[in-house]
Amino acid sequence: MSIKLNNYRLKGILLLFILTGISAAHAEDGYRLWLRYDAISNKSLAQSYRSAISQLVFPARNPVLDAAKKELRSGLKGLLQHQPAEVKTATGNALVIGMPQNNSLVAGAQFKTVLNGLGTDGYFIRSVATGGKNCLVIGANTDKGVLYGVFNLLRLLQTNKPIDHLNTADQPSVTYRILDHWDNLNRTVERGYAGFSIWNWHKLPEFIDPRYLDYARANASIGINGTVLNNVNANALSLTNQYLVKAAAIANALRPYGIRVYLSARFSAPIEIGGLKTADPLDPTVKKWWADKADEIYRLIPDFGGFLVKANSEGQPGPQSYGRNHADGANMLADAVAPHHGIVMWRAFVYDNNVPDDRAKQAYNEFKPLDGQFRSNVIIQVKNGAIDFQPREPFHPLFGAMPKTALMLELQITQEYLGFSTHLVYEAPLVKECLDADTYSAGKGSTVVKVLTGKMNPDLITGIAGVANIGTDMNWCGHPFAQANWYAFGRLAWNPAQTSTAIADDWLRMTFSNSQTFVADVKKFMLQSRENTVNYMTPLGLHHIMAATGHYGPGPWDNNLSRADWNPIYYHKADANGIGFDRTTQGSNAVGQYAPQVRDAFNNLAACPDIYLLWFHHLPWNYKMRSGETLWNELVDHYYRGVDSVRAMQQIWNRMGTYVDSERFTEVQQLMNIQLNEATRWRDACVQYFQTFSNMPIPAKYPRPLHPLQYYKDQRFNFVPGTGGSN
Ligand code: BDP
Questions:
Q1: Distance, CA of 522 to CA of 664 (rounded, Å)
Q2: Is 618 near ligand 1, meaning CB less than 6 Å away?
Q3: Which of 305, 444, 487, 727 is the most exposed place for a label (fewest CB within 10 A)?
Q4: Any idea where the Glycosyl hydrolase family 67 C-terminal domain is (predicted)?
């Protein structure tokens, strides 16, 4: 008896050991992102996958194909607990992967047409019966296409999709799909909320942090093919040989995953590191300096992507400092990289405190007259809205207004204005709102996405950029759900037609669980989450009312920064008569920058959507809304609704413990508590502040604010992340 008991005890200890071993190997700290590759729990499904992929034909003779093969092998091993036999020619059910030049099946006549339409990055996946066996073929014209195809197959397995009758072909809708890192050489990250920069400049070039490879894998899995390593507020030192050698080491690490490296270039670098007296773009010595610099860079990084430039904006130097315009500056750099097939991404985020005009109008005013004057390897990088990555903005009027100029969309993945990394905000709906907006620039249906994807002018290069939310935090993005924004960015850059729902669905399955209940419930609140945040921060078209310093929390009363257009009161214009920025034809006439149909829709109160109301109109507090309520009551209602929806989200999440590992479950719970507190602060601060102008009561049905207005005004937050350590 006692021997038996000991035996049980031993077995128990052994079991415990194995279990802890397993969980330690897979500590769910979020590091694995959406590439977790845990065994598929549905046994019969896993078995059917195994028998469909009993053999593998995958000749891999270069670094990109090697990377794809390695990923496939580790994915299959994890998901199916199985390694298919590798064969030269399939003799059973097989996965056959290749390009026409290295695989006779892919080279066959049946795939000619599909391959012709795939371009460089596309791929097809097709189930075919050949010689009595079933083969699943992934084919592409290039190794990169193969890489993307492999990741797509893995996604199908990870999300438990059928793979027996596949017939898909896919290719990206834009050429340049880029992450912009606002990372400084000292490893602080401007507007970064997930730790320090992942680029370890001090230890480069010798030390290649394994994170670089996982970063590359994650990006390749969603189709991202470029990364700008350094902040747009650039330090000229990043263009010195000392740092270029380090950038080259990163480029080498990322290359097998199809990712090219770009650098933000400080326009005055010829003076700062080149010893020249001027950075005038028309000066021959300056031109030569940049041409030589480009040659030097390409010697170190043969596939260097090009430059990103923030010029004459927020104190950055630029061509205007020399009486030249943006085209002069961009073209000079474009000429320097053109012989190497590089591009210049020139930002349109410009506004000038000395120009007594609505900030929302200034980018258009400066860039529109230059339409058609940029070199063909220049792409103008335009933020989704005309102010600055706000929780909600109408689309930027430059989209559609420069038909002869390549424009790329700039999005902000990092949540500078969306609650940093403590608020759960799924950004795909925000992105879609911009992509689907109709510019009417060439009649109905001239959507932003058509402009971006070259449908309006096929001669132009195309791209989408997102400001990264990545740092050294173990889970990369600070909030487990912030990973969804990195993920969704890549998926939408690849294919803007995908829905927010479909992307959330995939991400949840890959990141957490394939359980129907889990996916359905959590997806629902993800899709709602951005609207929640708009409600408790900036409802009805309000914008830029966050605390002026550090942009953390509400600060609608702030009015002490040196520039008028950095202060919240500039934007909400609340007074005894009402609230909102009059951008109508009677006001700043920012509406006049849109095509007539859009202009009229925004200009006329009867047509202006409620979501943009106070963006375009200054209205009295008792203005009667569509709902029949006064503007004041409706504003208050949005703030309260926003907070309530955070609570609703918490309630759903609290039921999800059985589907999620305890680490991430608890982490999200704790972050949601922070979000609830901060949302409540936003609500109570804003409602009471605006009440000082409206002099109208908070309707009795709502709970009273937790503290008086002065309490919120008096709060100071030191060391807010993302400000480079300056406060
Ligand atoms: C603003 C950020 C600032 C950036 C700027 C930009 O607050 O840190 O430098 O955008 O895009 O939103 O250049």
A1: 14
A2: no
A3: 444
A4: 477-701
